[in-house]
Fold this protein.
Amino acid sequence: MISVIAHLVIIFGVGFGLTFSVSTPPMTAIEVVISTQTPVKTSSDLFSPIPDVRSPTVDTRSDNPQITQYRTQIAEIEADVSRISRERFITSHQTPDDLGEWMARWRQAVEGLGQSQIHRNGSAPMTGDVLLMVSVGASGAVRDTKILASSGNKQLDQFAQNIAINAAPYDPLPGTVQSATDTLHITRTWRFEPSGTILTGE
């Protein structure tokens, strides 16, 4: 009987005012938050500054030595272009109509002077061909002479140049030619024949 009562006391916790409480301590909740959202970009992220890729600035001040040098070179080029545009070149194969009469008088002047000098010397004339360019100004003065192809005889080459210089001044260039020409370059083959004749028509 006593064992039965003791058994009931253990099971139901009754009897004798005794209470047996068996409780499990409360478990602490652990909250784990996992974010699966993509971070929101701000306007400063979306519109980041663009790198400055502009070309380096050039110092264009008038006191810059390099700029001064460039301007000088440009001025020289412009002067050369302007000068060349007022130069004219003719050959025996290309004598324009506006210079036809003037060239005929030019030939008479150089050929006549050359032949008279040859006959005056009395010695056997030198022979050969000299390709000579004679540059004549608008007034008829000789500005330059240049041997383009030698005869092989330096004395004959020099003789041809002397004739071109000493026969000047020539007639002034025609008015229609002077309006667009400051210098006329005449390229001709001067042929010195055994007879003492000089031909400048080739």
